[in-house]
Design goal:
By secondary structure, this protein is α+β, with helices and mostly antiparallel strands. It has helices spanning about 15-20, 80-95, 120; strands at about 5-10, 40-50, 55-60, 70-75, 100-105, 125-130, 135-140.
């Protein structure tokens, strides 16, 4: 598969629109309009040329105690297989943060799939537990 990810930045309007369609999108309690969506820490924001997929990596101090680089957002509305996009995003993160564990959270109650996180599993990740609030923790260890 040819590389499909393009580097962009927090605040990319097309990616912001996609983020707002993601189940984990946070809304401000006071009703302010969002202009950014990534959060603090070292970040890499990826998008497809046509802005039909977005992937965000964050390296930060996670209050849950998880260690490594976090996939904070992944949404795919493109024709590309999600597992292929994840593998490519993994390769980019490996270059930026060599040897780091990759991890993400999936809310099984908010995804349409009966096999929550399946695209990550197909990309070589594995389930490694649950958070106190019941989110599935997936990881890729190098």
């Amino acid at each position: 598969m040819e590389p499909v990810w393009w580097l962009t930045k927090d605040g990319d309007k097309d990616c912001l629109e996609m983020y707002l369609r993601h189940y984990s999108a946070k809304k401000y309690a006071d009703g302010r309009k969002r202009t950014q969506f990534v959060g603090p820490g070292e970040t890499i924001v990826l998008r497809t040329l046509t802005a039909d997929a977005v992937f965000v990596w964050r390296k930060f101090i996670d209050d849950s105690g998880q260690q490594g680089v976090n996939c904070a957002v992944f949404r795919n509305e493109s024709k590309h297989l999600s597992s292929d996009l994840i593998r490519q995003a993994d390769a980019i993160a490996d270059l930026a943060w060599p040897g780091e564990r990759h991890y993400t959270y999936v809310n099984a109650e908010k995804v349409a799939s009966t096999n929550a996180g399946y695209c990550f599993l197909r990309a070589g990740w594995r389930r490694c537990g649950k958070t106190k609030s019941g989110l599935i923790v997936l990881e890729r260890v190098v």
